[in-house]
Predict the structure.
Amino acid sequence: MNRGKVILNRLSKMYKVEVRRRAQHALDRLPKNDFQAVVKATKELAQTPRPKGIEKVKATGLWRVRQGDYRIIYAIDDKEHLVIVVRVGHRREIYRSL
């Protein structure tokens, strides 16, 4: 049930969003409603890589954004206008392996 890799690259001011394999695998396993909400939040990172409510993940240099019970962990490369989604997971489990 692979729903395809989520990659965006629209206007020059927008960031490109890349989803790593591990994050894509986690996305593919989400229930349909949660999948749609997380993909929407991921797409919004292309326009605003630092949205309201963003927090830095301690000692990793990564950022996280909340979407319901799920967290999207990502890195921002301002030079390349790139957002790299590293992990997607339930709030209870996402921080265990960082």
Remarks:
- The chain has one domain: 16-90.
- The CA atoms of residues 40 and 67 lie 9 Å apart.
- The chain has two helices and five strands.
